[in-house]
Write a structure and sequence with these properties.
By secondary structure, this protein is mainly beta. It is built from 1 helix and 5 strands. The chain has one domain. It is 12% helix and 47% strand. It has a 3-stranded antiparallel β-sheet, with helices on one face. A two-stranded antiparallel sheet has the order 1-2. Strand 3 and strand 4 form a beta hairpin.
Length: 78
């Protein structure tokens, strides 16, 4: 297990999650977002940890292209 600190801010709200994950989860997350965006319709989801009541933390991120110019946005759940 390793500790991962994930922080996110949009200028109005900020949050921090301390997550304990297995060594396998980080390469899996990297593979999930590798090459993003490949098209303007490309949407990827990457998760660390599990959102369960007894769990020690989790984060989920959705990577999406906002418009035809390819501007990207990340929606984070901490």
């Amino acid at each position: 297990m390793i500790e991962v600190l994930v922080s996110a801010s949009n200028g109005y709200f900020s949050g921090l999650a301390e997550i304990y994950v297995s060594y396998d989860e980080l390469p899996e997350m990297a593979n999930a977002v590798r090459g993003f965006p490949s098209t303007r319709a490309d949407i990827r989801t990457a998760t660390l940890g599990k959102f369960e009541q007894d769990n020690v933390g989790a984060t989920a991120m959705e990577f999406d292209c906002r418009d035809r110019q390819g501007h990207c946005v990340v929606k984070a759940r901490l």
